[in-house]
Write a structure and sequence with these properties.
Layout: H1 2-24, E1 33-38, E2 47-53, E3 57-64, E4 70-75, H2 78-88, E5 96-100, H3 105-108, E6 118-125, E7 128-135, H4 141-152, H5 157-160
Parallel strand pairs: 5-7
Antiparallel strand pairs: 1-2, 1-6, 2-3, 3-4, 6-7
Length: 170
């Protein structure tokens, strides 16, 4: 009986000692603010910055090749913000930053093609900050798809306008 008891006690101790390790690996808390920046390319890519907080207060800043130039405020419901944050969550680093660009050889996925646009995403949760830089020439289709899907959840389509053709944005 003593052998069974000591074996059970050993298993219990192993399980309890793993709890702090599980807590340390927990993802960062839901963000207070997300900043999404679409950067330029060598053609007519829309260039803008969007910041939105968990209360749904948003600011769009059209810089180039967008239907609206300058700042425009907008609102999202908390559920819309949560959907936006959830779409970006798989791309969010646990801590610090991650880069997919020429310098990192696209995060190990190969040599990027040239002339593409870049996207920056920054998350803030209290004092915690995470950052993602993605160059669209990198062959990281899951990252590219996640960024595109997340942007589609923002109520900013009218600010960006239709795709720019030959330097004219509608």
């Amino acid at each position: 009986m003593a052998i069974i008891w000591s074996g059970a006690l050993g298993i219990l101790l192993v399980l309890l000692s793993s709890v702090p390790a599980l807590a340390a690996a927990a993802p960062p808390p839901e963000p207070d603010l997300i900043r999404y920046e679409a950067m330029g390319c060598f053609f007519y890519c829309p260039v803008f910055v969007v910041s939105v907080d968990r209360d749904g207060r948003g600011l769009f800043e059209g810089r180039r090749h967008t239907a609206v130039q300058g700042p425009r405020r907008f609102r999202m419901s908390p559920a819309q913000f949560k959907a936006f944050a959830s779409e970006l969550e798989p791309l969010r680093p646990e801590a610090g930053s991650v880069r997919y660009d020429h310098d990192t050889r696209c995060g190990g996925a190969g040599v990027p093609v040239t002339d593409g646009a870049s996207t920056n995403v920054a998350w803030r949760s209290g004092q915690s900050r995470q950052f993602l830089h993605f160059y669209s020439g990198c062959p990281q289709r899951d990252v590219e798809r996640g960024l595109r899907e997340a942007m589609g959840l923002l109520p900013i389509k009218a600010f960006i306008g239709e795709a720019c053709l030959l330097g004219r944005c509608s």
